[in-house]
Amino acid sequence: MDAQGRGRADEIDPADQWVLNPRTGNYELRLDRSAPQQRASVTPPRRAPAAPGGAPTAPSPGVPGPRRGDVPPGGGRRGGRKRGKGGKPGGNGKKKALAITGGTLALLLVGGSVAGYLYYRHLNGNLDVIDTAGAGTGGFKKDQPINILVIGTDKRTGAGNEGYGDKNSKGHADTTILFHVSKDRTNATAVSIPRDLITDIPDCPTKQADGSTQTIPGEKGVRFNTSLGQAGRDPGCTMRTVKELTGIEVDHFMMADFNAVKTLSTAVGGVPVCLGKAIDDDKSKLKLSEGEHRLSGEQALAFVRTRHAFGNESDLDRIKTQQQFLGSMMREMKSKDTLSSPKKFFSLAEAATKALSVDSGIGSIAKLTNLAGELKGVNPKNVTFTTLPVDDNPAEKVKATVVVSKARAEALLQMIREDVSLTEVEQQEKAAKDAAKAQQDALLQGNRAQPADVRVQVFNGGGPQGSASTTLVWLQNSKGVQRASNEGNAPAKLEKTTLEYAPNQADQARALADMMGLPATALKIGTADAAPKSPMKLTLGADFKGAGVSMTAPETLPKDVQRTEADKAVCVK
Predict the structure, then answer these.
(1) 359: closest CA among 367, 350, 370?
(2) By CB neighbour count within 10 A (0-12 exposed, 13-18 middle, 19+ buried), where does 573 fall?
(3) Sign of CA dihedral 500, 505, 507, 512
(4) pLDDT tens track for 175-192
(5) pTM of this prediction?
(6) Which residues contact 551 (CB under 8 A, 6 or more apart)?
(7) Which ranges constitute the DSSP H helices of 231-375?
(8) Are 205 and 213 in contact (CB under 8 A)?
(9) Residue 316 in contact with residue 557, Cβ under 8 Å?
(10) Half-sphere exposure of 136 toward its Cβ, with a 13 Å CA cutoff?
(11) Which of 98, 253, 288, 569 has the fewest CB atoms within 10 Å, i.e. is most exposed?
């Protein structure tokens, strides 16, 4: 069943079953379509305790329970959720980060009532859940940044989508956005990854229909979009590819089909866009005059799919158009018109869950609602859209693919890895961060030892193979640190590079930090002085990219890196 048909029976729109009770002022859900006078309030006198996993339990004796014959809103089946078949990808989408900040907010209103209990189960049944065989972290943590991979494919799924995408394709990673939410939940960065980027795809374990795991061999020097759908690759393969490419581990993925754009844009009453010129694109069938428009359904899908109407007709310019559309949709979802309209609210919940495929870590409405709770405080003005910096592929005469622009890309990725905001946050939050940074920088204040006096053992705790050896050679030959040694692999893997030193080795630590571009957070001082001629301990973590490559995040994004803020409307040309 495609996403357009998930969880829908008898063409009943659950949003139409919510009515206002003038006596209580509450919106109430009709549970029995044959008896409209029987309704359950959204604000019951008692809330049922949560079941394991966070979903509401059946109501307590003090609250009337559902009678035999009651059905979930929209007809549908009672409970259960649809699981992915063999981990196969489910379609195209770039709206998912918005669904969790918009559509699932509706769930917060109904979580404890009888009506909410049935509706909760109904929405669970809409979800498509895919086991990615350990590709992600397994779940976001409250006190850490959140990284969500939003994937859209060009697979033709759903009625009316025959004219889009590749007719015979099993689906590529056509649109991919790494959505990073800061540790303090004040800001977010959405990084688009071009589909025609040449990269390496690692070996990828995938879950099969029979429950077994099959490893799909990796490939070198291929288009990024082949990380999904090709050779049996599932969204977990795209997650692994993104980690190899960026050094950022992904917590969860969200994926949807073409219908996501159509149904979500319709659910919010259309998405406002501004055109800096009139367009008449015969390929996408999009014809619009110059100026402002509100797009939904087929028009919205055509707008985000067209690559011949704007800019230089490249995929990179289409990405900019998609980012403008996403920012506008985010503003629309956050608007009072959406938040105060029960019909829009519940239509949005329906549209989001029907279009959505997710990993098992967020594979229920309860888990998605928890995630929405983490993201709901992020103001659109503190959400930045950008694109991974790339250059034309120098190996091609006819330019069709791109390669990573290493220096520019590393600056952007380092800011994300170090959780540095690309936007201005509230003044008091910024001041707190500045104070913390000043405290860290104080560690680097003071005298520096001469290179000849620096003693250090080098371990590889997660960097590329041979990193300890290459770092030793670089320190000795390029920096004059002759009293360094290669100690091979560290006892345990580390995400972050660390330099452990004693108080009486602080001058050596500062000198080595300067040479290697280590941030203050990498310096770990002990409590007791070291014996004379004792070495420090440098462990290269997964963030280590090579000897001489700085690991200190820049304060601001380089000016030549494309960016746009979600709260700003820009006319597309």
Answers:
(1) 367
(2) middle
(3) negative
(4) 899 999 999 888 999 999
(5) 0.70
(6) 414, 497, 516, 517, 518, 519, 522, 543, 544, 545
(7) 235-246, 259-267, 297-305, 315-334, 336-339, 342-355, 365-375
(8) yes
(9) no
(10) 27
(11) 569
